[in-house]
Specification:
This is IDD protein. It comes from Bombycilla garrulus (Bohemian waxwing). The chain is mainly beta. 9% of the residues lie in helices and 38% in strands. It has two domains: 149 residues, Mannose-Binding Protein A, Chain A, CATH 3.10.100.10; 60 residues, no CATH class. Strands 3, 4, 5, 6, 7, 8, 9, 10 and 11 form a nine-stranded mixed beta sheet that branches. Strands 14-15-16 form a three-stranded antiparallel beta sheet, with no helix packed on it. Strands 1-2 form a two-stranded antiparallel sheet.
Length: 255
């Protein structure tokens, strides 16, 4: 809404002065966030992604992703993978690999079928989901492998240097699942309110944006059926400031 009152004069018929007031003119609303803080949004899959840089083995990483309503990331198309490779992930925490090469657990496993002359096998999606998920190419085998293991877990290696990232350079590793590594979680986009709280499906909330007087319903991660409250300017106050996060709350700036 537009809280301040504009007025102006114009000459009407017969020379009389006509005074117009515009109060609370509705403005277009743009929603700026579809993911919680720390997550990256990709419109192509309506998903959110986050790299956890604390080292965990594959199974612990799976549980961490599940606790935030997600799973270890799988990819549906090359464009999605390129989006992941191009991101500037927060790299301040302790990591377990070289700074210029980042490896993340992702949601694939390599099943070994033959150990004779060379390792042979095939990739599988660790947790069955979309049939559109693509499988990685032949992997590089990690150094922590054991002869007893018949299942290895996938690590996606991307590069820290921007020029390498933006060219899409990467590698796939099949590694011992009990090695510790950073990991990449993926979850559906969600509704995030103006105070950065996650909103469950079907609930009312005020979306992130520039209108704290908006009330919407969360549906499939999008704000829908929005209703706006219109606020009157504070009485007896010429200069004032509106609170960006509280509806119809003003601070008078008059002396």
């Amino acid at each position: 809404g537009k809280e301040n009152v504009d007025s102006w004069h114009s000459r009407g018929r017969g020379g009389e002065t006509t005074r117009f007031h515009t109060v609370n003119v509705a403005q277009p609303v743009r929603f700026s966030r579809k993911c919680p803080t720390g997550w990256h949004h990709y419109e192509g899959t309506a998903s959110c992604y986050r790299v956890y840089l604390n080292g965990e083995n594959y199974w612990d990483a799976v549980q961490t992703c599940q606790r935030v309503n997600g799973s270890l990331a799988t990819f549906t198309a090359d464009q999605e993978l390129r989006f992941i490779l191009a991101q500037e992930w927060d790299l301040e925490e302790k990591t377990f690999v070289r700074k210029d090469q980042r490896r993340f657990w992702v949601g694939y496993q390599f099943v070994i079928t033959n150990r004779n002359h060379s390792l042979e096998g095939h990739w599988e999606v660790a947790y069955k989901g979309s049939s559109e998920v693509f499988l990685p190419p032949d992997p590089i085998f990690g150094t922590g492998m054991s002869e007893k293991e018949n299942v290895l877990c996938a690590q996606l290696q991307c590069f820290h240097f921007p020029t390498l990232r933006h060219h899409g350079l990467h590698s796939w590793y099949a590694e011992n699942c009990y090695e510790k590594s950073s990991f990449l979680c993926k979850r559906s986009q969600t509704c995030v309110d103006i105070k950065d709280n996650i909103v469950d499906e079907g609930y009312y909330f005020t979306p992130k944006g520039n209108d704290p007087c908006l009330s919407c319903t969360c549906h499939n991660g999008e704000p829908e059926m929005c209703v706006a409250a219109l606020c009157e300017r504070p009485q007896g106050c010429q200069q004032y400031r509106k609170d960006p996060k509280e509806c119809c709350k003003f601070t008078c700036l008059d002396p």
